[in-house]
Design goal:
By secondary structure, the protein is mainly beta. The chain has a domain of 116 residues: Cupredoxins -  blue copper proteins (Immunoglobulin-like, Sandwich). The protein contains five helices and 30 strands. The strands form six sheets. Strands 20, 21, 22, 24, 25, 26 and 28 form a seven-stranded mixed β-sheet that branches.
């Protein structure tokens, strides 16, 4: 990395500032390289944060120095000892990674949970890009059991940009089990034991459903099976108390000091349990260069939609002398969170956590523009899996092909096949669908074929149709599920099983 000693000092100081916001958002190369020859300890534990002046007990995934998550440099291996000090069972999924199946971080018939005083070791070659880690057990993800997982490539080093990693969350003071009970009317989802999975420690009344934004158009790409435009999707299952960016609200935002006329790479991660956002760069404009950690043909803009579990990498040139808020506004609502990029010495003014108007529903307007920098090689599909996304708000049960996990028929695929999945949403809610252990390419949106982005999570709009393709090159048991946490735990999940695993 070509930079002066003064700039290195600046980046080190900036990293310290970012850490005070709850995450080590800026990590110097020298620290990354140290990880190449050592094993990093990550500990699942409880921690206390302050939200709107009130203490809240949440989870964290921390290194011994308090750094949240992990950042690796080019060529580093993912060598981690994961220690569970949370006094309840847990397991962490390495979202966006393609490890050997047994290291994916999902409990099943071949992989157990990590006990309340247990540990587990992981060692694999990581996939570059902006990724994250989160619980894949019960409702712990809602209680902030998540952290960044950034793997920097050689091109990132050459770019010589200041990196800012932002993890977004939706937050409630209620226990997540209570939130789920409010949605289901107290019914326990089939096959799931909710005991000990999430306790926040600070509970209130029963959670109600929030459909304040339901009179929204679906936006580009959303259509019914016959291509007709639909309207009025259901939005926002849960009424949250706050929305967080690196554990903070706009009442007390993270302020990142940037160089004068500096270049910044924003690594944005939507870690929310059930909230989609519009990223609004405010007075700035940027260039989107990657989604879900995978490069795309650059797309310029100032507003980008982002559903649950997706990641956006945006390059921004920050003008000298000013302070510039960057917002994440919840679809269908005026609520927003965010952070501030500020030049040295610039005055930072108070920014409201409420926008002037409601945001529209997150849609496929960006997805339709995206083109992969490194698309899949062209070849015909060996198998096509037709999946209907089914379910309803009442009773609150979500499913695939009218089958709720774990009582599902597993799709049959074979190692080496080119697999196409056609996901047809027959519900009035959008579903962010995530496949473990693979990256897929988006090849069709609402009947319009395209050589779209390569990613691991795609939004299927209400009554919309999305097709993706991937190569079955990583044998194992791989979940495919909606990344709205409450949809997944009430049934919207299946798994793809192939090669030697029964």
């Amino acid at each position: 990395m070509h930079c002066s000693m003064d700039r290195r000092k600046f980046l080190l100081n900036s990293a310290g500032l970012a850490a005070t916001g709850g995450l080590a958002s800026l990590l110097p190369i020298s620290l990354n390289r140290a990880l190449a020859s050592t094993t990093t300890t990550l500990t699942i534990d409880r921690r206390t944060i302050e939200v709107m002046g009130k203490a809240a007990s949440v989870f964290g995934i921390l290194q011994p120095d308090g750094t949240s998550g992990i950042t690796l440099g080019p060529g580093d291996l993912f060598r981690v000892d994961l220690v569970n000090a949370a006094r309840e069972d847990a397991i962490i999924h390495w979202h966006g990674q393609k490890p050997p199946y047994l290291q994916d971080g999902v409990a099943d018939m071949n992989v157990s949970l990590i006990g309340g005083s247990g540990s587990r070791t992981y060692d694999y070659a990581p996939t570059p890009g902006t990724h994250w880690m989160h619980s894949h057990h019960g409702l712990q993800e809602q209680a902030l059991l998540a952290a960044p997982l950034v793997v920097r490539g050689a091109d990132d080093v050459k770019a010589d940009a200041q990196e800012v990693t932002i993890l977004l969350h939706d937050f409630s003071f209620r226990d997540p089990v209570e939130i789920l009970a409010g949605l289901t009317g107290g019914a326990t989802p089939g096959g799931h034991d909710m005991k000990g999975m999430s306790g926040m420690g600070d509970t209130g009344g029963m959670a109600g459903m929030d459909h304040s934004g339901m009179n929204m158009d679906l936006g580009s790409g959303a259509s019914s099976g016959d291509g007709m435009k639909m309207a009025m999707p259901d939005l926002n299952d849960v009424a949250y108390d706050a929305f967080l960016a690196n554990d903070r609200t706009l009442d007390d935002p993270l302020v990142v000091r940037v160089e004068r006329n500096g270049r910044v790479r924003l690594r944005l991660i939507n870690g929310a349990a059930s909230s989609a956002f519009w990223i609004d760069l405010g007075a700035l404009s940027g260039t989107l260069v990657a989604v879900d950690g995978t490069p795309v043909i650059p797309v310029a803009g100032s507003r980008f939609p982002m559903t649950m579990a997706q990641r956006l990498d945006v390059m921004i040139d920050v003008p000298a002398g000013g302070a510039f808020p960057v917002f994440a506004q919840v679809e269908g609502k005026r609520d927003r969170t965010g952070f501030i990029l500020a030049a040295p010495g610039a005055r930072v003014e108070t920014v409201s956590g409420t926008a002037e108007s409601e945001a529209p529903a997150v849609d496929l307007s960006l997805e339709m523009k995206l083109r992969a920098s490194n698309p899949l090689t062209e070849r015909p599909a060996d198998t096509v899996l037709a999946m209907a996304l089914t379910g309803a708000m009442s009773p609150y049960v979500w499913s695939i092909n009218d089958q709720a996990w774990p009582n599902v028929d597993r799709p049959v695929i074979k190692k080496g096949q080119r697999v196409v999945i056609e996901m047809r949403n027959r519900t009035m809610m959008a579903h962010p669908m995530h496949l473990h252990g693979h990256h897929f390419q988006v090849i069709d949106l609402g009947g319009a074929a395209l050589a779209g982005a390569v990613r691991d999570t795609v939004l299927v709009p209400a009554m919309g149709v999305v097709k993706v393709a991937f190569d079955a090159d990583n044998p194992g048991r791989w979940p495919l599920h909606c990344h709205n946490l409450y949809h997944m735990v009430t049934g919207m999940m299946t798994e793809l099983v192939y090669d030697t695993f029964a």
